[in-house]
Amino acid sequence: MILGIVGHEAKKFTAKTEQTCREVIVHLLAHDVTCVVSGGCHLGGVDIYAVEEAKKLGIPFIEHRPVTLQWSGGYRERNIKIAEDSDKVICIVVKEYPQEYRGMRFNYCYHCGTDQHIKSGGCWTARYAGKIGKQYEIIEL
Fold first, then answer.
1. pLDDT for res 115
2. How is domain 2-140 classified at the CATH fold level?
3. What is the model's pLDDT at position 119?
């Protein structure tokens, strides 16, 4: 299975949630994954954790990096490529911001219409995968 793995940038993780995220990724990769597809996020986080764990296990990977650091012409097209190239997309998100987080804050994920986790562009990618007939799952830490 070709597995897309996306989610939050590094600053939205604590040391504990990063460790949990990596454990989830390792568990996912142990189930007949032949390739990992991710977004190579310049801000670190799930995209990078997924590739690092795939490398450790000798699993091939593809990183679709955005051409520009903006939605149109960059992230949107990158996210579509991730969904199209994957059999299933997993989005790993945290339920709340770390106390020291200083970026933009949203009280809910407007992609999912829930307050059970904070907003992630990865949710857009996972839900887009569902729209094009692919499996997807959002894992909340």
1. 87
2. Rossmann fold (3.40.50)
3. 87
pLDDT band per the 50, 70, 90 thresholds, residue 34: very high
Residues paired with residue 136 on neighbouring β-strands, in sequence order: 89
- Please give the span between the terminal C-alpha atoms of the chain, in angstroms, as a whole number: 24
Which tokens go with 56? 């450790």
The domain spans of the chain are: 2-140
Instruction: Give kind and range of the element (H or E) at residue 114.
Output: none
Among 93, 92, 88, smallest CA distance to 32 is for 88
Cα separation, 6 vs 107, in Å, equals 20
Token code pair at residue 80:
């579509």
Mean pLDDT over residues 79-103, rounded?
Answer: 95
Residue-wise pLDDT for 7-24, tens only, equals 999 999 999 999 999 999
Rounded CA-CA distance 68/59 in Å is 28
